[in-house]
């Protein structure tokens, strides 16, 4: 294995649930639905603006627009690195792996996440809002492979949605489903798989 590809939301970055109210969690419950709601997918695709999504969410959640604006801003500002994944990224980089980002992410979110030092460890990225395509559409995986000359058989993709892993597998990319509710356990599994000399 030569190339390790990371999803961002729920894998490398997340909100600390202990810092969020139950009302806040409930407001964003749609994020975990399968499939993702079309309006949020279009936001990630770069088709809808933050202002347009705010209006849609106000209707969907029967919530005042000002409250929606507050929660959307908080959902960005509260993003922080998932500590076990952040350390895994650093260790993989030190071990000589090539690291890439493949993520469904809106403009506001990706601009915020790129400020974190760990983001600078990646050798390349394909982000949905800049491509006009989203996972699990095959085209976004093809762009990653083609842009960076990656061999699918030498590439491992880490994501927290089964549909995204399946789409990668259809193109010959190996996958590892990430359990966002137990990040340390998934990172330990990946260490045993990719860094056996360190684990041993």
TrEMBL record:
Pfam families for this protein: Hydrolase
CDD domains, alphabetized: HAD_sEH-N_like (cd02603)
Chain segments annotated as coiled-coil in the UniProt record: none
Protein name: HAD family phosphatase
Organism expressing this protein natively: Alistipes onderdonkii
Taxonomic lineage of the native organism: Bacteria, Pseudomonadati, Bacteroidota, Bacteroidia, Bacteroidales
